[in-house]
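Model it.
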Amino acid sequence: MSTATTRMTREEYLEFERGSDLRHEFVNGEAVEMVGASIPQGLIKGNLFTWLNLHVIQAELASQVQTETLRVYIPVSETYRYPDIVISCGEPELQDTSNDTLLNPAAIIEVLSPSTEASDRGRKFEEYRSITTLNEYILVAQDRVHVERYTRADDGSWILTAYSEDDAELPITSIDATIALSKIYHRVKLTK
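Modeled.
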């Protein structure tokens, strides 16, 4: 979710953001302040990050799992976003020597909230699809057991697979992993 905005250039944004204690996305020439997460959203992100990062370490993969502290740059719209979780495979390609802006995500995971769901499904997904290295986009509901996984097909189209059972297994092919939904929602109080 976002609040206050400030109009600026990309260069001004990067300088501003690197000196800020708060996080801001850069959309349509505006720095948009990001706000905190709910308890369910924080637990889901933590569960996913912990499990995915442990998998990468144990499998000794040349991949990295990052939380929303790492920006992703989307060249087609000159936008900077902070995905909830981003996975890069191989050597991360970074925008500059500041090591804080990723150019080659393989998978992006967003935990949906009432204030971000429309953007996560719409504009953000449209922007993310333009990143040629991105092959998986995963949306995780925070109010019920429900995960949607979009994968890029060989022809460039995106295929949706939905998972809604506790014992369902979510594949994450970018790191050759499978995680049970029960692990994603461990200790999360669901409202639906």
